[in-house]
Amino acid sequence: MNPNLQYAQAIHGRVTGRGIGVIDTIHLVEVARAIPYLREASVLSATEHSRLEKWFTEYLDWMTHSGNGLEEREAKNNHGTCW
Fold first, then answer.
1. How far apart are alpha carbons 53 and 47 in whole angstroms?
2. 22 within 8 A of 83, measured Cβ to Cβ
3. CB of 73 within 8 A of CB of 66?
4. What's the start-to-end Cα distance of the chain, in Å?
5. Helix crossing, 46-65 with 28-40: angle to 10°?
6. The pTM is what?
7. Residue 82 in contact with residue 27, Cβ under 8 Å?
8. pLDDT 10s digit of each residue in the chain, 83 long?
9. 74 alpha carbon, distance to own chain's centre
10. Which sign does the torsion angle of CA 62, 29, 11, 68 carry?
11. Are 17 and 6 a contacting pair, CB within 8 Å?
């Protein structure tokens, strides 16, 4: 999976993606929170840990610099809170 939600909440023929799709991945926070425990339990190899860290770093960069991510950050509702 690419570390972005560029095509989230797309509407065929109208829009390729919308900021409101960011909220659909709120549960990714549970994956991020589990990573240190998985690493400590030797469930993740060093390579897997590095790749996960890189993915979340790139995702955070997308969230903080893309139009869709910024749109959600500025929302004055549950979407902005989720961001």
1. 10
2. yes
3. no
4. 20
5. 150
6. 0.87
7. no
8. 899 999 999 999 999 999 999 999 999 999 999 999 999 999 999 999 999 999 999 999 999 999 999 999 999 999 999 99
9. 16
10. negative
11. yes
